[in-house]
Amino acid sequence: LCVRANPVRAPTATMAARASAAAVFPFRPMALNQRSHRKLSSTSSSAFCSRKRRTLDARYLHRHLFLLRPGRRDLRVSSEGKGRTRGEPEPGGPDTQTLLDADGDAAGDDGRGSSVGDAAGGMDLGWLPAFPHALTASMANFLFGYHIGVMNGPIESIARELRFEGDTFLEGLVVSIFIAGAFIGSIGSGSLVDNLGCRRTLQIDTIPLIIGALLSAHADSTDEMLWGRFLVGLGIGVNTVLVPLYISEVSPTRYRGSLGTLCQIGTCLGIITSLCLGILSENDPHWWRVMLYIASIPGLILIFGMQFAVESPRWLYKVGRLDEAKRVICTIWGQSEVDSSIEEIQSVIKSNGTDSGTGWLELLVEPHNKVAFIGGSLFVLQQFAGINGVLYFSSLTFQDVGISSGALASLFVGITNFAGALFALYLMDKQGRQRLLIGSYLGMAFSMFLVVYAISFSVDEQTRHNLSILGTLTYIFTFALGAGPVTGLIIPELSSARIRAKVLGFSFSVHWVCNFLVGLFFLELVERFGVGPVYGTFGGVSLLSAVFAMYFIIETKGRSLEEIEMSLDPSLRTEDK
Which residues form the domain of 256? Predict the structure, then answer.
């Protein structure tokens, strides 16, 4: 069934929806007068909504609709390269190039999904058609979070039952071997997605997750446990690439950021669930087997649920399944968006080529190398800002204030992480990716310096404990507000459709390498230099990350993936003319 998005009000519905954002971004005068707007509005309505579309240059109309939208502050550059004032119309409309606003203020909105709210009596429900599909995919992130936390409590019981108690190397290997599997999975994910699509790949990839969980739960030897954890890591590596890619390609433009935050929320809920179950392992030495058996249930739900989810319309068009792509767009974005969306996708894919066999060497070619550099750098900075080290050390911080249960302390941390992700869900499409990323890293830096002050200077013991707890929880909250969700979301938004999966695969492989290095050397660095210098380094890296986001990250809020790609690739803008 098609979800009709009030098709008879194409430009005016967009403007009405944008007016609701006035509390965040002030209204600015329209570039064209009202008479021109009314004339163009009636023309565009008939053009977009008639059964037999009239012969109208949609690209020409698309450019002029940009000038009609209030609240835009794009820098418009003439063909001679001379800058003009923001919001000032430039003569020769068809030759105007609309570039991404690098400062990220008041990014545009193509209105996809916004008019559904008008039909619902003012309630904004434009996100609703795509929500079940994004929610189903985010079940993979729930599994990711669950497997992160499942070994946190019962590792001692596992070591005792499998007869490697006291062997710190094997204990560490059981916990971290899934990182090796995740690295391999993330590298191989790009080719799988290009050939099979996100929907089918998610279903196939869940099989090693289920087998790995069952093998670990039934393990009678260390080798069986290691193989089970490796298979789980293999599935996790593919899933962490697939889910943000899938959600970014099926979400309406206006809600892509909020729906993309479901990745972080799913991870947080998975961690919290495993930590809650882990509390029971303190009294039952065999409870860890039940916890690992439970891990197979979300996998079965994911396989079944993705059978009813839609495939990415961009991938469908890319492999020549045009009718299916139109049906998917009709279902999740609305009938009024079918023609314009297909036209955008067609323009980009024709320029890129439909060959799905892109090679890894294309990451070295402009403009893909710039996006690959940004993606890899974001994950390097995220990991070396110390999130895994802080999470590891948080249980010791809570012990200082009398919370002796490690599982209970980790549960406090998980709830704080979840609260930050909920705030990110609300703010992602209001404040934009760049602002959240900068604010997040500045908050993380402040938190680390607060902990350093508490443990390095002469303050009374109670104040030291309070400041340490406050700094730790603030760090985790601000991480979940931006550095966590934005990093995985911004990379597919900046990537070309031709090589999006491989850019994400490369970026996440960097993530897993850095994750492993931090886990390997964190305790040794703390023993050699102390907590203060290590946390101070984390704060310094967080400041560096904020500067990096300020200069290298452009705002993508409110832009379709095709708009972003055409704005970043000069060759596509030239061909569009």
Answer: 127-319
